[in-house]
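Researcher: Here's a chain I'd like modeled. Treat it as a single chain, no partners, no ligands.
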Amino acid sequence: MCFIQLCVALPVMAARNKITYFSANILYCDIASGEKRTDYVRRRDGLIALLAELKPDAIGIQEASVCKIYVHPTGDDTIKAVVLGLKKRGLNYGASFWLSESVGSIWLEGLAFLWNKDTVFLDKEHIACRHLDASYRRSGTLIQKSLCRAEVSTMDGDTPLFIYNAHLEAFDDDVRNKQSLEVSEIIRNESVVSKKRALFGGDLNSDDISNNFEDIGFKLILINRVDYMFSYGIPSEKINVELIPLHSIPGKPDISDHNGILVTVWDE
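Model: Modeled as a single isolated chain. Structure tokens:
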């Protein structure tokens, strides 16, 4: 399925020989703009419906939120709600949430991975996350970003794929640049040095940050405003990338103010 003209014609291959990965910044409970819970739930339900259609093997979310600000009995844990929504549609997803930062206990924000338990092998022991050293305080709140890595493989145990999920600083250019250099050093040590196939992507909050990752051998395969996807060690004929519109679609409500990226990687 192609949403825009970014698809490359590839030979049809057995489903067990590929991994699909969807990445998006989504479902942030926008305290600053006063987002109402009804709007948050509508966007969340839109995401669930989209994921049920795409059925990605793995999913990386930036700005995954626990929206206790709404004081709803469910707690509005976004990732748990998405997993439950997918389960109601007959899809069996596992999930992992990593807390980056918070405003007291009313709003929690971080990175998340979800994975289809019926199509790929991944568990929490194969996920590693860390806070980035470059951080600062704004209005008394610690602004702290993170990097997470998941090691995922097809059910028959073919060559594992490293997937990196990141969200960098939005407002301070100096901090963001330090974070990008920090992340590039981490993924270089973990992927390039050990020659692991890898995807790296997320919301990097810059439209001009590619060099820090291309300099270590990662290849930029898609950029949409501030959302990126890079690959390493994957031949061009073994990878396909699509932009998945999440907003400004005629006749459809917005899911996010970012678009999503869907990548397909075939085993060698």
